[in-house]
Input
Amino acid sequence: MKLLFNEFIKDYKKKTTWIYMLIMFAIIAAYGYFQKSYFKENFDPLKIMISITTIAAAVGGVFTLIMLANNLSQEYSKGTVKFLYTRPKSRSAILTAKIALGFINYIIFFVLGIAFDFSIKYYVFFNKKIGLNQLNKTLEEGYFGRTVAKQLIITSLTELATMIFFIAMVVLLCVVFKTQILSLVLVMVSLLGMSIIQAITGWAVTKWSWAKYHMFDVPLFSSYYENEASRKVVREIFKFDNANALITMLVAYSAVFFVISYIINARRDITID
Output
């Protein structure tokens, strides 16, 4: 616990952490302004409410992964990893603390993103026309008959589950490629290239059914539960009839990535490049 606390303090002493948070707020505000224009004529408070978790998870998740990549790779690039490994803590314990901090950072950014998004929409963009009194209202067609509250909970949980996979992927990249810049580049390429690879998969599965089981299709897990339109895409384009295969892929890929990361971390020579 002390090791985790030290990592937490170290992260939040960095100016970049607060810069990332401010950028997240700016992006959320810009998205809120866009929504104000979009819903100007066809105002739909329920759809505005359910979008709050989606944007917070997306933007907060990206900055969380960047912070994690920096946290892991900087230890090697700055040479501080030597001092970490001289402590009376195992390498596994140190890596576990950094992974746990990644999840904590995601939750912090996610919660703050939701709070800021709701506040700016409530007080600024929609002049108190949305509110917590709408949580028990049922969404119209396209959302499986869910209430706003249920939709927000499902979105939050599926995004958190998907974040497990992303964190596992980032940890593996940073442990294997310990150079800070290279690690960050690979993380960003993986995130940005995911949509392209998924588009290729949509074509490939028409010829080879097994082509859908690669790691870049794991995020389709959250899409499957997002709404009826997204589920239809996952079923018809990517040929996942239900969520069982996606859950198995998420667990399997995450577990394999974490195990490989711990093995490499335990055996690695700490000589700084």
